[in-house]
Amino acid sequence: MYSIGPLTVAPGGRAQGLIPVGTSTYGVELGIPLIVVNGAEPGPVLCVDAGVHGDEYDGQQAVRQVLAETDPATLRGTLVGIPCMNTAAFEAAARASGLDHANLNRIFPGDPEGSYSFRLAATFVEQVVPAIDALVDLHTGGTFGEIAPLTIVQGGYEDLATGIGLAAGHELVWKGGKWGGTVRHPTLAAGKPAVTIEAGGGTYREENVELHVSSVRNIMRHLGMVDGEVELRDSYTAVTGTFARSASGGFFLGHAEPGDACKEGDLIGQVVDHYGTTLEEVRAEKEGIVLWVRRIRTVRPGDEVVIFGAVEGEITP
Ligand SMILES: [Zn+2]
User: What sequence ranges are listed for the domain Succinylglutamate desuccinylase/Aspartoacylase catalytic (predicted)?
Assistant: First the structure.
C-alpha cells in the first residue's frame, strides 16, 4: 500500500483527493489536490506538480494528462500528480493567491503558523516530501511573458538533480537560480532530486502541454518506471539568467523571441510612451540567449521585461 496525505492506494490502483490546508471564508475546504497512480510493480515515487503560480496553465493540464494516460498495470513505482498546487492563485487567475498575495515559489519551507500560502508550503513539506523520491515542478513564463523551454537545476545540488534535469529533454539548463524558497529547495534538502521545467507562458498552448508531457514521460523512463529508451541530447547548454527590469513605465515593444541568440548590444525591446517616443531601450548586456520576453504590453517601473541567459558552458550526458 502507498500512503500520501489522506490517500492510501493499493498496488495497481488509482486515487484522488485533497490534502487539507484550511477553509475559505465561506467554509469550503482548501488544500492540495492529489492524483495518485500506484504501479503494480515496486519502484520510485515521482511527484509532478504544477500551478505553484496560479496563472501558469500548461503544466496543470500536462499533469492531468500524464496521470490519466499512465496505466498502473505496467507502472513500476508510483506517480503522484499535483495538478494545481496553488488553487487560491488559480482562482484569482494570478501568479499569487488573493488570500495573502505571497509568491508561493519564494516561501518554502513555509510556516504552519503563517498565512495561507505559508501553511500550504509547510503542509507540502510535512506531508508530500517524505512520501516521494523525486519531484518535477512544471512552470511557464506566466501570464506576463513567455519563456524558452528550459530546465532549472538548482546550484549546489547538481549531483542530485542533473540526471532528471537532462532527461527533461530541453537543451537549455539553467543552473541556479540565486533565489531560495522554491518547492525544489525542501525536496533537495531532503536528499531527493528535484527540478523545475519551464515552457511557454503568455497564453495557454497545447504544444506547451505536450512539451511538459514528453518531459515527464522521459523522466519516468530515466527512473525505470516505464519501459522504453531514455532520450538524451548529445549536449546541453548551461545558462544563468539575469532579469532586466524597466525603469520607465509605458508600452513594451519586443524585438526578440524566447530562445533567440543575442550579441552584446542587440536591441531586445523598448519602452515607448503613448505618443511613440522611446523612453527606454533594453539591450543585451552580453552575448547569450534570450530566455524570457514580456508579452503583456503594460510596463510599470520595476517590471521585468526580459530575462537574458549567459552561456556558462556545455553539459554532456
Ligand atoms: Zn512559475
Answer: 42-222
